[in-house]
Amino acid sequence: MSTLNKHYIFGYGSLINSLSRAVTGESGAVLPVKVMGYERSWSVMSPDFGMSSVAVVQREGAYCNGVLVEVPESEIPHFDLREQGYERSRIEPHQIEAYQEIVLPEGTLWIYHACEITPPTQDCPIALSYADVILAGCIEHGHEFACEFISLTKGWEFPALNDRITPRYPRVQPQLCTHKINMFIAGAINLTQEELSVPYKEPKQ
C-alpha cells in the first residue's frame, strides 16, 4: 500500500489505551505525539451518558498529547461510530511533534474534535472509570506522557465522581492498577484522597 493511502487517527482520550482501541477495530503502528492548534478539555458531549468526556477544540497556540494510530481505511467507519458527536477533520504534518527523534509517518492524519466545550456538571461529572482507562493508556507511554496528559487537559476543577463500584463508562477496565493511576490523578481531579481510595469490585471467580 502506498504511504499516501495510509490513514492515522490522533487519539487523545480513551483511544490512547491499547485495549480500549482494540474493542473498536483493527489498528496498527502507534506513535506518541503532540498536536499543535488543539486544546483538550473535559466536556459534556452527551447528557445521555451521565458523564463527561475529553474533547479538543481548535485553539491557536495550544497543543495536546496523544497517539497517532495507523488505521486501515476500512476500519474508519467503526471509529466514526465510536466517536459520534465529534467532527472528524484532517490535521497537517507540521502540526505534529513526536516525543522521539523519529521520522513521522506519511499519510492522511485525522482528529475527532468538538466545536465547543460544555463544562462537566453534577449530572455529567468526570467519571473516574473513564479517566482510569485514559491514564492507563498514558502510562503505557511513560511517566512524562501521563503527567503531560494531566497538565494539558483543562477542566479538572469541575465535578468528578468515583464510579469504580458502579462504572458509567461502557469500556471500563476493572483490572487496572488504581493505586498507580491515583498517583498521577490525585491533586488534579476534584476528589479527596478518601474518595479516590475506593477501588473496583473484585472480579468474580
Could you explain how this protein is built, in words?
Strands 1, 2, 3, 4, 5, 6 and 8 form a seven-stranded mixed sheet that branches. Strands 7-9 form a two-stranded parallel sheet. Helix 3 packs across helix 4 (143-151) and helix 3 packs across helix 5. The termini are far apart. It has helices at residues 18-24, 76-82, 128-139, 143-151, 178-185, 193-196, and strands at residues 7-11, 30-43, 53-70, 87-91, 96-98, 108-113, 126-127, 153-154, 160-161. The chain is α/β, with parallel strands linked by helices. Helix content is 23%, strand content 28%.
Walk me through the topology.
Layout: E1 7-11, H1 18-24, E2 30-43, E3 53-70, H2 76-82, E4 87-91, E5 96-98, E6 108-113, E7 126-127, H3 128-139, H4 143-151, E8 153-154, E9 160-161, H5 178-185, H6 193-196
Parallel strand pairs: 1-6, 2-8, 7-9
Antiparallel strand pairs: 1-3, 2-3, 2-5, 4-6
Helix pairs in contact: 3-4, 3-5
The radius of gyration computed from the alpha-carbon positions, rounded to a whole number of angstroms, is 16 Å
Order of helices and strands: EHEEHEEEEHHEEHH
Approximately how much beta-strand content do the residues carry?
A: 25-35%
Number of separate strands: 9
Helix content: 10-25%
Distance between the termini: 46 Å
Query: Any low-confidence stretches, pLDDT <50, length ≥5?
Result: none
If you average the pLDDT, what whole number results? 93
The SS-based structural class is alpha/beta
Number of helices in the DSSP assignment: 6
Shape descriptor: globular
What profile does the largest beta sheet have?
Answer: 7 strands, mixed
